[in-house]
Amino acid sequence: MNLTIKKENKDKIFDEETLVNIQEEYKKTKIQEVLYQLDKELIGLAPVKNRIKEIAALLLIDKLRTQLGLPQASPGLHMSFTGSPGTGKTTVATKMADILNLLGYIKKGHLLTVTRDDLVGQYIGHTAPKTKEVLKRAMGGVLFIDEAYYLYKPDNERDYGSEAIEILLQVMENQRNDLVVILAGYKDKMDRFYQSNPGLSSRITNHVDFPDYTAEELLNIAILMMEEQQYQLTEEAKNTLLEYIKRRMSQPHFANARSIRNAIDRARMRQANRIFNLHNRVLTKKDLVTIEAEDILKSSLFMDK
Fold it and tell me: Which pTM value belongs to this model?
């Protein structure tokens, strides 16, 4: 017997033989362009990229089910991004906002990045208006709260972070069609944060863990950063930079790609100073674009040499 599936408005009737061209629907949404950019712009992070693709696929299928009048459980869109600084969490959040917008889950698709200071006030009556103003600006897009665990300070009776959390919880539950919230931070601290705030934990559907980069991946990131600024590394400089990265990874306050960007900026300054002192000859374009090993070796990490 041929079953029919009716949409809620009963204007259309689809039987079980209704055909859906998934590739055609996929192309219509243009999310493949976003996923391609994600692959192109971010080195490594294979587990993260796969998870984002899974989430995008689920949301696309859910959209198609709605079009065919099939029952659907409203997909949970609030997310948790955990990992060390400089592992691409904000970049991926931006791409996620694009995907959600293209699929029609959020109206605007913008990303608003905030921290505790943007949400929590310093005196009674200050937190609620601050938090509500941030939420107002984020409506229609994605609110990215970095180091979200700092919202909760149970040891401080005069702290107003819990008030911000309560307001946030209400919006996450009651205005799910208007705002997606991504909470981010170190994994161990975020785990403790969720344990202390079960209301938040229950509203987070997708947990994405961002692994640290390997030294080789960070070298490739550095090379890409250099190319974007039209610089190039000699082969010796590449080997020296790889050694620098390995040493820097063992130092305090290492922040993955963020630390590498800082190292590149310092190497550029040393290069500029080196060629500035070449008073006795005319500079060539090669002089201006080439980073030598000595521009990296002058880092304090190589003082033992």
Answer: 0.85
Q: How confident is the model at residue 199 (pLDDT cuts 50, 70, 90)?
A: confident
Residue 241 makes CB contacts below 8 A (sequence gap 6+) with: 219, 222, 233, 263, 267, 296
Using CA atoms, how far apart are residues 237 and 292, in angstroms rounded to an integer? 5
Contact 182, 207 (CB under 8 A): no
Place of tokens 């060629």: 275
Q: For residues 155 and 158, what is the distance between their CA atoms, to the nearest angstrom?
A: 9
Q: Is the Cβ–Cβ distance between 258 and 86 less than 8 Å? A: yes
The answer for residues whose C-beta is within 8 angstroms of residue 62's C-beta and 6 or more apart is 72, 75
Average pLDDT over every residue of 251-263: 95
Q: Quote the tokens at residue 21.
A: 């061209």
Residue with tokens 């065919």: 68
Please state the separation of Cα 91 from the chain's center in Å.
4
DSSP per residue, 115-162: -HHHH--SSTTTHHHHHHHHHHHHTTSEEEETTGGGG--TT-TT--HH
Q: How distant is the alpha carbon of residue 274 from its chain centre?
A: 37
Could you give all domains of the chain from N- to C-terminal order, each with its CATH number? 76-210 (3.40.50.300), 215-302 (1.10.8.60)
Residue 75's pLDDT band (cuts 50, 70, 90):
confident
Please give the angle made by the CA atoms of 137, 143 and 147, to the nearest 5 degrees: 125
Q: How far apart are the first and last CA of the chain?
A: 82
